[in-house]
Amino acid sequence: MKKVIVLGGGGFIGGHLAKRLKENGNYVRICDIKNHEYFDHREICNEFILGDLTDPKTVELVIAEGWDEVYQLAADMGGAGYIFTGQNDANVMQNSALINLNVAKEATVKNIKKLFYSSSACIYPENNQLDPNNPNCEESSAYPANPDSEYGWEKLFSERLFKAYKRNYNLNVRIARFHNIFGPQGTWKGGKEKAPAAMLRKAAETPDGGSFEVWGDGQQTRSFLYVEECVTAVLSLMESEFEGPVNIGSEEKVTINQLAQMAIDISGKDITIKNIYGQEFIDKYGFKCPLGVRGRNSDNALFKKELGWEVSAPLIEGMTKTYEWISEVISQHQLVEA
């Protein structure tokens, strides 16, 4: 039995990862600044420490001698409405950088056998993602660096930080760049939700014959990976000798309008998509429509070559499962409010 630490286990991906690790027979310690909103602690870990990982004293306490693996997923992050407005840049950069500086140091000092760091597709150059039909997100395209957000710059810095600890202090690290992970037990409202959850929530809440908004012209492209696929890929990477950075995502590219229509089709309702941008958006929300890059799609050639991993199910399957969960949560909220 391995002893593993999941930093950020109170979050969406971290909670699913911790749950799988515990189910696989590992002893799991979680640390997060918040409790998991949907998982019971006993379901996902053996120990839960409520703590702020930007504080070096907390990290010193959590990462102890004799533990085998650390999974570092803790970060200040969210969807387009949080990352791309520019209003949260200082917090995003400071909080996440502090966490990673603390973790790299303590994992080295405490002789942790192996560390996983979750980077992001947001590190890729903006100029490689201007054509929605032909984005370039191959791992080797990361440099010359030109991320489109401060979140991406911080992730790129932290990749280099962990690699430097590998070179200078022999920290055994694995790095993956996540591409839009989604699924149940994640944020689905409030501004920090990702596009799949936002579309599915809107489809669930919009009455038959109604309409809902999609930010921008809806022609920007993305790929989305179901969370259970992501967890499988992470564990596969950790069991290998391959260090990365490597993409973990789906190669099934869709436009945002297609994603919205998929959510509508799953709901079984007759709903119209209303694209909103330009002055209309500014008048309504008070800031420029946050869209991110025009095109982004995971390139999985390297992961397939090094580890043989491939996505096992189409996007529609994960979207259907997530819609069922969001619909149930909405129904529960309505019962409580009634």
TrEMBL record:
Q: Which residues form the NAD-dependent epimerase/dehydratase domain?
A: 4-249
Could you confirm whether the keyword Oxidoreductase appears in this record? no
InterPro entries given in the database record: Epimerase_deHydtase, NAD(P)-bd_dom_sf
Which UniProt keyword terms apply here?
A: NAD
Q: Please indicate if the UniProt record lists Manganese as a keyword.
A: no
Spell out the Pfam families in the cross-references: Epimerase
SUPFAM superfamilies hit by this protein: NAD(P)-binding Rossmann-fold domains
Q: Under which name does UniProt file this protein?
A: Nucleoside-diphosphate-sugar epimerase
